[in-house]
């Protein structure tokens, strides 16, 4: 059984999802006016339940076995700080939250500010503020990852270490860190399903990490012409993943135009890939004035190139060197000119 009280819920119900016999099950949990709820469960084995709050705005994960009595408490506005107690795994993860609650609180506030700023019209002041907030967020994520690594080292045989790896290292562009923390694991959890999946994922992102050989790819531009990775041998190649929606993607395209105008086309090529699940064909007006190859990807986030290059969010730039090795991931527009210029002695 899972009982709890979550404050400031905007919805009168919580959606619970979990896997049962390899199928995804979904239950609706009623919540009273004070945020209290009871969810009766009888899993055969330890099961992960994702409790989605306020129409999927956020979620908290609860681990429950057959005879466990789990308690959940917290505030829907701070989902990362919602506590879960009732067995060793939940207690260990809650202890991590408690020990790092200030960083988690600051991260939640920053994420909310970024969400709100994305709803505002673009402008220089908004752009500068957003860049500062993203920088602060990156620092907080780095600090939390270091704390998670300390916990993993201290508890190498505990299932909580696997959950921390999955929470703080899977979305990283740093395969070295993921491989390192996986190496700390000891005992039976090394053979668990989650550990095996994380190992496979670690090997996958290593294939598109900085310094790796560029994976082969084929694309089709907006005229239907086939584009192959081998077409750019001997040149710097920028793969820019953007969306037709959102200020940051539009700003990225604008900055890339300024960079491209000063580059030697014999030494560098750009390919912009539009990832839009709801808009096809891509109708963004800027497309008509982009002077390099544009690829409207029909499969959006399901596209092979997104999977191959481990693109997790937009906008995202990957720079590939003339020798075919990945030079830099998540490189800003101004950094592209600096890298190419320094390579040629400019």
End-to-end distance: 67 Å
Instruction: Tell me, briefly, the overall form.
Output: elongated
Going by helix content, strand content and strand pairing, the class is alpha+beta
The counted number of beta strands is 15
User: What percent of the residues sit in helical stretches (DSSP H or I)?
Assistant: 25-40%
Reading the helices and strands in chain order gives EEEEEEEEHHHHHHEEEHEEHEEH
Average pLDDT figure: 90
Spatial arrangement of strands, main beta sheet: 13-12-11-14-15
Number of helices: 9
Largest sheet: 5 strands, mixed
Using the CA coordinates, give the radius of gyration. 23 Å
Strand content: 15-25%
Low-confidence stretches: none
Topology readout:
Layout: E1 2-7, E2 13-20, E3 23-30, E4 36-39, E5 47-53, E6 58-64, E7 70-75, E8 83-85, H1 88-99, H2 101-118, H3 124-154, H4 159-168, H5 175-182, H6 193-206, E9 218-220, E10 226-228, E11 236-242, H7 247-261, E12 268-275, E13 293-297, H8 304-308, E14 316-320, E15 326-329, H9 333-343
Parallel strand pairs: 1-7, 11-12, 12-13
Antiparallel strand pairs: 1-4, 2-3, 2-5, 5-6, 7-8, 9-10, 11-14, 14-15
Helix pairs in contact: 1-4, 2-3, 3-4, 5-6, 7-9
Summarize the structure.
The protein has helices at residues 88-99, 101-118, 124-154, 159-168, 175-182, 193-206, 247-261, 304-308, 333-343; strands spanning 2-7, 13-20, 23-30, 36-39, 47-53, 58-64, 70-75, 83-85, 218-220, 226-228, 236-242, 268-275, 293-297, 316-320, 326-329. By secondary structure, the chain is of the alpha+beta class.
């Amino acid at each position: 059984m899972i009982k709890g009280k979550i404050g400031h819920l905007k919805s009168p119900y919580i959606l619970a999802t979990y896997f049962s016999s390899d199928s995804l099950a979904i239950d609706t949990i009623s919540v009273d006016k004070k945020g209290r709820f009871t969810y009766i469960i009888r899993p055969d084995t330890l099961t992960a339940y994702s409790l989605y709050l306020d129409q999927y705005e956020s979620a908290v994960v609860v681990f429950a076995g057959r005879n466990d009595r789990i308690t959940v408490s917290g505030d829907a506005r701070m989902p990362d700080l919602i506590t879960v107690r009732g067995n060793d795994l939940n207690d260990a993860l809650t202890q991590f939250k408690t020990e790092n609650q200030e960083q988690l609180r600051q991260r939640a506030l920053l994420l909310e500010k970024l969400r709100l700023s994305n709803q505002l019209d673009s402008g220089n002041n908004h752009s500068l503020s957003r860049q500062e907030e993203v920088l602060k967020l990156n620092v907080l994520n780095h600090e939390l990852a270091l704390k998670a690594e300390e916990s993993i080292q201290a508890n190498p045989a505990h299932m909580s270490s696997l959950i921390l790896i999955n929470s703080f290292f899977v979305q990283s562009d740093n395969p070295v860190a993921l491989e390192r923390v996986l190496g700390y694991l000891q005992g039976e959890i090394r053979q668990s399903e989650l550990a095996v999946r994380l190992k496979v994922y670690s090997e996958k992102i290593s294939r598109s990490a900085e310094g790796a050989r560029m994976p082969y790819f084929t694309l089709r531009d907006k005229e239907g012409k086939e584009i192959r990775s081998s077409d750019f041998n001997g040149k710097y190649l920028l793969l820019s993943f953007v969306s037709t929606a959102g200020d940051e993607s539009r700003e990225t395209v604008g900055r890339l135009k300024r960079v491209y105008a000063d580059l030697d086309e014999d030494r560098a090529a750009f390919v912009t890939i539009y990832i839009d699940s709801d808009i096809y064909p891509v109708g963004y007006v800027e497309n008509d004035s982009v002077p390099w190859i544009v690829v409207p990807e029909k499969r959006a986030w399901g596209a092979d190139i997104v999977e191959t290059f481990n693109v997790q969010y937009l906008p995202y730039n990957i720079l590939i060197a003339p020798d075919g090795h990945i030079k830099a991931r998540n490189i800003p527009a101004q950094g592209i000119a600096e890298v190419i210029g320094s390579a040629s002695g400019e």
